[in-house]
Amino acid sequence: MISRQFLRENPETVREALEKKGIDDVDLDHVLDVDDEWRSLKKQGDELRHERNETSSKIGELKAAGKDEEAQEAIDRSQELKAELADVEDRTDELEAELEERLLELPQIPHEDVPVGADETENVERRREGFENLRELPDDVVPHYDIGEELDILDFERGAKVTGGGFYFAKGEGARLEHALVQFMMDVHREQGYVDVFPPIPVNSRSMVGTGQFPKFTDDAYRLGASNEDEWDDDDLWLLPTAEVPVTNMYRDEILLDDDLPVKHQAYTPNFRREAGEHGTETRGIVRVHQFNKVEMVNFVRPETSYERFDELVDEAEEVLRRLELPYRILEMCTGDLGFTQAKKYDIEVWAPGDDMDEGPEEGGRWLEVSSVSNFEDFQARRAGLRYRPERHEAAEYLHTLNGSGLAIPRVVVAILEYYQNDDGTVTVPEALRPYMGGLETIEGTEPIGESAVGAGKKD
Fold this sequence. Notes:
This protein has 12 helices and 20 strands. By secondary structure, the protein is an alpha+beta fold. The strands form 6 sheets. Strands 1-13-14-15-18-12-11-4 form an 8-stranded mixed beta sheet. A 3-stranded antiparallel beta sheet has the order 5-9-6. Strand 7 and strand 8 form a beta hairpin. Helix 3 runs antiparallel to helix 4.
């Protein structure tokens, strides 16, 4: 969140940020009015306390001097001041609560060099990698959802039966591929100096507020607990949408030491999102699902180093794709597609040649976001109370937080199934993954199970 002082001193900068990020549901003038009234009442309360203290101190003096009538007047005035102060404090508390709530609705200020744009069509492509020596592909690359079913390594029907739409089974070599990617990615990031964290999967509302998911994006989250006529139990637990939430909140309301920084954590978790705000998005395959595996990198750094660390974090996420030899590109988000909490963000998009649903490179196919690398500056730190002490004798300051996926696994699976596809319908295992799959070089699939599979490739 932005600070009250920044809002007071830079209201037009905040107004401009709302406009650049396309946020039109925040009444900034009302927030400023609430802050003005709160400050006015705080001053009034201080004056009332001062007068009450002076009046109270006179009562004893007047009584000692035998001035009973004046002493009674002072007593009456003291009672009036007490009542007035109570009213002022009650109203001040109401305004304090409202102001805190309204400040949570204000977005991060974009970094000054972020390109201004209305939406994703105005994002800026910074570079492409891996297109110099593309492997030879079949004439007609089969989309991942079809080859996944043909090889019986992805099962969408049974996933929907067990849970619902947007959930799937990875089976056999498909499950091995997901597990291999998790271990491979974590090994890469350990080389880069990351310390593993295996966090709780449920998180509380305070944690979701700390990283900026709440209160704006509650509709996208899965809540845990039983409900009866819209009344929920008292657990206050949500399935995490990203490991960013628990890992960032590990140090909530704590003070780190300068010697601790930078802190670099990585975490593998399953992640859960309703995607309630997404309309018209694809439902076929595993590009957009409600449960997905991901390795997340979270950084806690000194403010003066955060943009240097941002560039390094982009490179750390890219390293996974370089070793898998998958073509990809780097996009810089414009202000309109930047996101509520980010000051600057790059997306890493892998190339998947099996579909032409989006505009891809000259070779066809489409781009799939596998990582968003973000610098939040001190936005999350203020919400979560994340501070560090530059020197032991100095006051604590807010640190900066950054994160990036390293990477979102289902979309990497999509890219592998399509880019490493062979003419005979098999899929070559990327060389970097073979040690994690017991030396397996080719995914050949398995024979389907059950009566329903007869006539669809299974022998009777």
